[in-house]
Design a protein that fits this description.
Length: about 425
């Protein structure tokens, strides 16, 4: 037990971490191009932020949160999602008083007590963005465009964008009644959670993962057919904006999303190649969330994108993530003076920005060169007492095993020159 990570968590080991760094770097770059700035919020928050924000009939709040009491008996919850904390920070720092909109992105771990399977973990990672301060569909189109650009920039071809409108509290009332009427004869067959949702929030039943409930909701009234004029116009505007941007989409009236705070726009990027957990990116508009958690009435829109699922999709698409280069220079030594000179030269080269390694196991020369080869060093510099007496070092090209003698005062320049090739 001591040597096993908790169920549903995964170490990201050095041999794989470059993939994560690659995806995160691309995301930072694209966010920067779109004018989104990074925000970092705590890993834990007051529990109430999520019960209020995410909604108490959602899977997350009903059964997935890592909640505990701290030593002062405060109820604390590890972030199950990224939006509520960013909203909390926006209100706390009165960022709404600055020029609007506020455009932020984040890269975070999320925690949900779920049944672990491919693409579903208890600790997973999300890339996300939020735009606060505008209800205009230009903002929805902008963030959807960002997600779409990001996915294609990563070389993903098989994802489809699905969009829907889940209306506003006004038009949802009529839908709620129609839905209740439709579900009433099937009430007894609903799962226990959905029986509770029937009164409180029947739309949640549409998103239930239980196969029985999924069957029961087939043919249920869809929100799209109940939109008020304002929500309908907004949805049409969004589609016009996406078309103008050249972003392909399909209207999918079945999208509900797993969090209660969404209004109007809801969207998902879905892959058909990674099994049941095909939703890589999910998001939408939340015009009441900021007010709901105690801020002013300011609308917002955003998305969350799971990094683990993204990497699965990239793999399924045959995307090759470039592995980082090995060291440019490996400094091998023999003898006491050789060692001292190697220590000095290694430091100087590193100082000059050349990726340089030295064997800290102090193996013999053969062992050092074997190690240099295994770590993918491009050049090895061999320094021995004899060479030092002659004022030279040996420069070995590891790729073709050729070697030459280089004057000691020239070695740095030679390596700088080679690095450029
Ligand atoms: P799902 O329907 O698959 O449970 P969700 O609606 O709960 O997803 P969101 O809360 O919108 O998902 O989270 C956004 C993204 O985070 C998802 O699209 C997915 O890529 C990722 N994600 C969500 N839950 C997990 C998890 N348990 N493990 C790994 N990734 C996850
Ligand atoms: Mg979920």
């Amino acid at each position: 037990m001591l040597t096993n990570a908790p169920k549903g968590t995964k170490d990201i080991m050095p041999k794989d971490v470059y993939k994560w760094q690659y995806v995160e770097k691309k995301f930072r770059e694209i966010c920067n191009n779109y004018g989104f700035k990074e925000v970092r919020t705590p890993v834990f928050e007051h529990t109430e932020l999520f019960t209020r924000g995410v909604g108490d009939t959602t899977d997350i709040v009903e059964k997935q949160m890592y909640t505990f009491k701290d030593y002062a008996q405060r109820s604390i919850t590890l972030k199950p999602e990224g939006t509520s904390p960013v909203v909390r920070a926006f209100v706390e720092h009165k960022t709404y008083a600055e020029v609007q909109p506020t455009k932020m992105f984040y890269i975070i771990p999320c925690f949900r007590y779920e049944k672990p399977q491919s693409g579903r973990l208890r600790e997973f990672h999300q890339l996300g963005i939020e735009t606060f301060g505008t209800g205009n569909m230009l903002a929805d189109a902008e963030i959807i465009g960002l997600a779409s650009d990001f996915l294609s920039e990563l070389g993903i071809k098989d994802v489809e964008l699905h969009i829907n409108s889940i209306g506003c509290p006004e038009c949802r009332k009529k839908h709620r009644e129609a839905l209740r009427e439709f579900l009433l004869p099937k009430y007894d067959q609903l799962c226990d959670a959905c029986k509770g949702r029937f009164d409180k929030n029947p739309m949640r039943i549409l998103d239930c993962k239980s196969p029985v409930c999924q069957k029961l909701v087939q043919g249920a009234p869809m929100m799209l057919d109940y939109l008020c004029d304002d929500c309908r116009n907004a949805f049409e505007e969004l589609q016009a904006n996406l078309t103008a941007m050249g972003v392909d989409f399909v209207v999918d009236p079945g999208i509900v999303r797993g969090l209660d705070y969404y209004t109007k726009t809801a969207f998902e990027f879905v892959s058909n190649n990674i099994g049941a957990q095909g939703t890589v990116c999910g998001g939408g508009r939340y015009d009441n969330l900021i007010e709901e958690i105690g801020g002013p009435a300011i609308p917002g829109v955003g998305f969350g994108l799971g990094i683990e699922r993204l990497l699965l999709v990239m793999e399924a698409n045959g995307v090759e993530i470039p592995e980082p280069d090995g060291a440019s220079a490996f400094i091998a030594f023999m003898g006491e003076r050789g060692r001292n000179y190697a220590l000095k030269l290694t430091r100087e080269l590193r100082d000059m920005g050349i990726k340089t390694e030295m064997d800290v196991l102090a193996r013999n020369l053969k062992g050092q060169l074997k190690y240099a080869d295994r770590i993918g060093a491009k050049y090895a510099v061999v320094i021995g007492d004899n060479e030092l007496d002659e004022g030279v070092v040996i420069l070995k090209d590891m790729a073709n095993s050729t070697q030459e003698s280089v004057k000691i005062e020239n070695i740095k320049n030679v390596l700088i020159e080679k690095k450029g090739r």
